[in-house]
Design a protein that fits this description.
The radius of gyration is 23 Å and the shape is elongated. The chain is α/β, with parallel strands linked by helices and about 375 residues long. β1 and β2 form a beta hairpin. The strands form 4 sheets. It has an 8-stranded mixed beta sheet with strand order 1-2-4-3-5-16-6-15. It folds into 2 domains: about 270 residues, Aminopeptidase; about 110 residues, 2-Layer Sandwich (Alpha-Beta Plaits), CATH 3.30.70.
């Protein structure tokens, strides 16, 4: 029955996905996207609240029988980057693109809602559908939680279309799945001067260069080799001319960890190293730690529920239990640290890996069926066990 209902609504939600793709909107700007979602929900008489955390939506389907409440989540935001104009149904908005699959997440959740709405007479419990803004930038899940979207929720599921996993393969991970994507900013101050007389200046470029190299000693000598930790400096800005030693250099980067104890300790070690090293060269440095999302940790029971649900419609060779976590970040982590949750990868790769955040990112709309059925069956299995 589920597959038949998915087929019934597939074409409509495929068109919805392509429409969203052509009009991408970035963090907390998802007004047109939200309107499209609401129009779909209105068409099928699905109740919802809008304007949560500015552009977020929470839809609700109540089963005919009492039971627990489960939440299914999708993110709606695009990225501030340009798409290859030769791509199918390419973005019509300059400098904005759905390059991570959020258009598919949104359309897939609408597909799930339409199917479950037809099944509500046989459902025990309540299903909430969370359409959230700003996963890519500001963590839209957090303000939606602050506004009460998880009130009364007993468990949650989320899914991500995954470009490095083969099409049709659904991956689950017990425990820590994705890292905390924290950022940092280092301001190095020296004494400017002429490039021909460095002895009369304090070169912040030299100091900053030493900092970039030395930060890696924290990974190799301060963090256990059994723990995962990444420090990457992605921005190095300083100077205005080849013969001028500048007054200041700005470094920006990211810190990725999978262990909250490591996450607490490493920024302090970075701060101490940065300040001490700068002082040793006669300059100074300010270290700013900019915490991002928490570590995404899947609940063991919720992961088992998804595993059980997958066996109802996916062959064993299409179910992958991931052993190693990913060092990317996901603000579904805010949900997972509040209620028992499970996050799932749905493969979209055909012949070669599909790079997320790339101008050519795209996938076959048929994958909407897989992400939708994964969420539907996970929710129904959860409610059935409660």
């Amino acid at each position: 029955m589920i597959k038949q209902l998915i087929d019934k609504y597939y074409e409509e939600t495929s068109q919805l996905r392509q429409s969203i793709h052509q009009e991408p909107e970035c963090a907390f700007e998802e007004f047109k996207t939200a309107e499209k979602v609401m129009k779909f929900l209105d068409k099928y008489g699905i109740e919802y609240q809008s304007g949560i955390a500015k552009t977020g939506i929470i839809a609700t389907i109540k089963g005919n029988k009492p039971g627990k409440t489960v939440l299914l989540r999708a993110d709606m935001d695009a990225l501030p980057m340009s798409e290859n104009p030769n791509n199918p149904y390419a973005s019509k908005v300059a400098g904005k693109m759905h390059a991570c699959g959020h258009d598919g997440h949104t359309a897939g959740l609408c597909l799930s809602a339409a199917v479950l709405n037809e099944m509500k007479d046989d459902i025990s419990g309540t299903i909430k559908f969370m359409f959230q803004p700003a996963e890519e930038a500001d963590g839209g899940a957090y303000p939606m939680i602050k506004e009460g979207v998880l009130d009364g929720v007993d468990g949650a599921f989320g899914a991500h279309l995954w470009g490095s996993s083969p099409e049709g393969v659904v991956s689950i991970k017990y425990g820590a799945m994705m890292a905390s994507p924290d950022n940092f900013r280092i301001t190095v101050k020296g004494l400017g001067g002429h490039g021909s007389a460095p002895q009369l200046a304090i070169d912040p470029i030299l100091i900053a260069s030493q900092i970039v190299v030395s930060l890696q000693t924290i990974i190799s000598r301060k963090v256990s080799p059994l723990e995962s930790c990444v420090i990457t400096v992605g921005k190095f800005h300083g100077g205005t001319a080849p013969n001028i030693i500048p007054e200041e250099v700005i470094l920006e980067g990211t810190l990725r960890t999978l262990n909250n104890d490591v996450r607490k300790v490493v920024p302090n070690q970075m701060k101490e190293l940065v300040e001490t090293l700068a002082k040793s060269y006669g300059g100074s440095a300010q270290f700013e730690y900019l915490p991002g999302y928490p570590v995404l940790v899947n609940d063991e029971r919720m992961t088992r529920i998804t595993h059980k649900a997958l066996k109802e419609f996916v062959s064993d060779d299409k179910i992958r239990i991931v052993e190693k976590p990913d060092m990317g970040g996901e603000d579904f982590a805010y949900i997972a640290q509040t209620v028992p949750s499970n996050f799932i990868y749905v493969g979209i790769m055909k012949d070669k890996p599909i790079s997320h955040h790339h101008p050519d990112f795209n996938f076959d709309d048929q994958n909407l069926k897989v992400i939708s059925e994964t969420l539907i069956r996970s929710a129904l299995t959860f409610l059935g066990e409660n």
